[in-house]
Structure formats: C-alpha cells, structure tokens
Amino acid sequence: MKAIILSAGRGSRLLPLTETRPKCLLPVGGTTVLGRQLDTLEAAGVAEAVVVTGFMTALVEEEVAARNGPMRVTPFFNPFFQIADNLASCWMARAHMNGDFLLINGDTLFEAALLRDVLASPAQPIQVTIDRKAAYDDDDMKVTLDGARLTAIGKTLYHADAESIGMLRFMGEGPALYREKLEQMMRTGDGVSSWFLKAIDAIASTTGKVAAFSIEGRRWNELDTVEDFNALNAHFRDA
C-alpha cells in the first residue's frame, strides 16, 4: 500500500505560525505534523509515501531526506500551489496512483488504531473515511450516505450524515476511476480551483462506487487554526 499526502499548502489560517514554515512542518508532540503522519504510516506497514509539496518545498524535502526508516518517502513538488487547489495537486501526482493507495490531507492527524482499521476494512474501489458527531458546521467536509454507500460530499451540503476526516483509500478499479475523473475535471473551467473531493462527489453520483467507512471512537485531529494547534499540543503534553 502506498500513501499520497497533500502537503502543498501554506496554512494561511495558522499565521503567524506559518510565516517561516509550511503547515505540515509545525511542531506537534515532539515531531512535526508530517513526521507524525509518516511515523504512523510506517508503523502500520505502509511501504511507500509520496508527499506533495508546494510552499517552502525545500524545508519539506529536508525533512523527508532526514528520515531513515524502512518506508520509502518521495517528495513531489507542485509548482502551481499558489494558484491551484489540491485537485490540481492530485492531477499532477496521478502517475503515482498506479495501484492501491491512501490519499491523506496534509493537516489530518490520526492514531495508529484508526489507520489499522482503515487498512483492514473490506476492499472497495473508493472508500472515504468518515466520523459522526451531533452537529456539523460550515467548515466540515460533510457527506450524505445510503447505507454504507456515499452519495455526496462537500462543505455546502444542506444535510449531513457524517463528515470526511481527510483519509481515502483506493483499491482495484478505484485508482483508474479517480485518474479518469481528474483528467476530465482539469479540462473544465474551474478544475484548477477545485478541491480534490469534488472528483469523489462526481464519481459517487455517477457510479455508486464510493463507500464510507466509519472510525467513530478513534482519535483524529484536523489542524486548521491556531486554536487547533494549541489544543493539539496541549493534548500531547497531557498524554
């Protein structure tokens, strides 16, 4: 299994913390956001990781080069990170989507047990990892479900059954389905400015081949704001 991590962004909502480093290199619990992601993936037996970089790519490349574990980690620079959103990052990295893989947001942190659950779950062409809570806000990546099948995903959905945590798994025909949809969407007027999950929404609505997998009860965090950063480090100090 391969992992592709989308870490090209600066994290402007985390300023001034991201004045001199990208979001993925912010310190968390004795390492960095990216370091913790890679450590967890490596411990779970993931053989290879591709890190899509952008803002201050040299710093990320240095972090990757300093690793000496068994997992092969390759940086992949997106030179258009300032003008393109992460659907374009996925499109540029599509050559790495040539087999089963995980696609992970660069600001999603997850415990090892959560990752093991995802890796051990039944094979599906495309699987979106979800969690549930009492209410959802405008910033949540909301999903609607028909049983275990995902029917729609997006921040502007009126109704929500759950939220995406920013970890997807592609198996079997899933990688080809996603690559094909990326190619189609990058030929449209808003492809460059689209979020990568817009392609998942389109596949879900036309093929029905997107499943949802719940990790309710497992720990994960999304790092978007300075408040998120402070809460996350407080957790590791208290752990």
Describe this structure in words.
Strands 1, 4, 5, 6, 8, 9, 10, 11 and 12 form a nine-stranded mixed β-sheet that branches. A two-stranded antiparallel sheet has the order 2-3. A two-stranded antiparallel ribbon has the order 7-13. It contains seven helices and 13 strands. α5 (174-185) crosses α6. The protein has helices at residues 33-43, 57-65, 86-92, 112-120, 174-185, 197-207, 226-238; strands at 2-6, 27-28, 31-32, 48-53, 72-77, 101-105, 108-110, 126-131, 142-146, 149-154, 162-170, 210-214, 220-222. It has one domain (2-238): Spore Coat Polysaccharide Biosynthesis Protein SpsA, Chain A. The chain is of the alpha/beta class and 239 residues long.
CATH homologous superfamily assignment: Spore Coat Polysaccharide Biosynthesis Protein SpsA, Chain A
The share of residues in extended strands comes to 25-35%
Count structural domains. 1
Poorly predicted runs: none
The number of distinct helices, counting runs of at least 4 residues, comes to 7
Mean pLDDT, rounded to whole units? Answer: 94
* Number of strand elements: 13
Protein structure class: alpha/beta
Q: Level of helix content?
A: 25-40%
What is the CATH third-level topology name? Spore Coat Polysaccharide Biosynthesis Protein SpsA, Chain A
Question: What is the radius of gyration?
Answer: 17 Å
